[in-house]
Amino acid sequence: MSHATTRRTAPAPDRDRREDRDRGSSTAELVIITPIIIVLLLLVVGFGRYAHGRQLVEQAAAAAARAASLSPTAAQAEGRARQAATTSLADAGVSCRSMSITIDTADFRAGGTVAVTVACTADLSDLALAGLPGAATMTATGRASLETYRQFTGTGTNR
Known about the structure:
By secondary structure, this protein is of the alpha+beta class. The chain contains three helices and three strands.
């Protein structure tokens, strides 16, 4: 019977030095990359919130213009447009620091148009860590045509 002898060889000294030098480098890389990933995620969330808020402001402006176009007088159109814009944003859950609604009824006649501009300043202060400003103003204009064959009167009734 022959016995095979196994020889243990000592690791090369260069290899030990290389392993010691790399020890802990993955932890350091993780510590450096984690804040960058968090900031990028906050930026994505912030831009998503801004885009969604802008879309909701556009919908509110369109709803306000539509409500104004169905009104018999310019005075009633302004009141209905303000109510429609405010209700649309409130129903969507948008809270504005400040909101302005501008109604253009200069062309309020049969076949004319009415335009409503809604500006909403939204609070983004909870995302300030990502470098976003504390607030963003989103503005949208909605336009609606008035019926061509409907007669508008100054008394608030349509014929």
